[in-house]
C-alpha cells in the first residue's frame, strides 16, 4: 500500500474530517484503483479491506458507504 493510499484511508475513516473532504478522498482512492486496474495490477488487499469496512460501517455517512460498495464491486477480484 502506498503512502498516498494510507493517507486517503485515514481521511475516509476519520470522523473529525468534514464529509466533503472524506468524499474527495474516496474519489481519489477510486482513481488510484482505476489506475491499477488499467495497468493490469492487483489492488492492494489493505485498500480492499478498508473499503469493505467502510461499506459495512454503521457510522459512516450513506454517500461514503455507497461509493465504497461500488468501488468494491468494480475492483474486487
Contiguous runs where pLDDT drops below 50 for at least 5 residues: none
Category by helix and strand content: mainly alpha
Q: Helix amount, in percent?
A: over 70%
Count of individual helical segments: 4
Number of strand segments: 0
End-to-end distance: 17 Å
Tell me the overall shape.
globular
Radius of gyration: 11 Å
Question: What is the H/E string?
Answer: HHHH
Beta-strand percentage range? under 5%
Overall pLDDT score: 92
| Largest sheet geometry | none
Which properties best describe this structure?
mainly alpha; 74% helix; single chain; 77 residues; 4 helices; globular; 0% strand
Quick structural summary:
This protein is mainly alpha-helical and 77 residues long. Helix content is 74%, strand content 0%.
Characterise the protein shown here.
With 77 residues, this protein is mostly helical. It has one domain (3-75). The model has no long low-confidence stretch (mean pLDDT 92). The chain is built from 4 helices and no strands. Helix 1 packs antiparallel against helix 2 and helix 3 (45-56) runs antiparallel to helix 4 (62-75). It has helices at residues 3-13, 19-38, 45-56, 62-75. Helix content is 74%, strand content 0%.
Helix and strand arrangement:
Layout: H1 3-13, H2 19-38, H3 45-56, H4 62-75
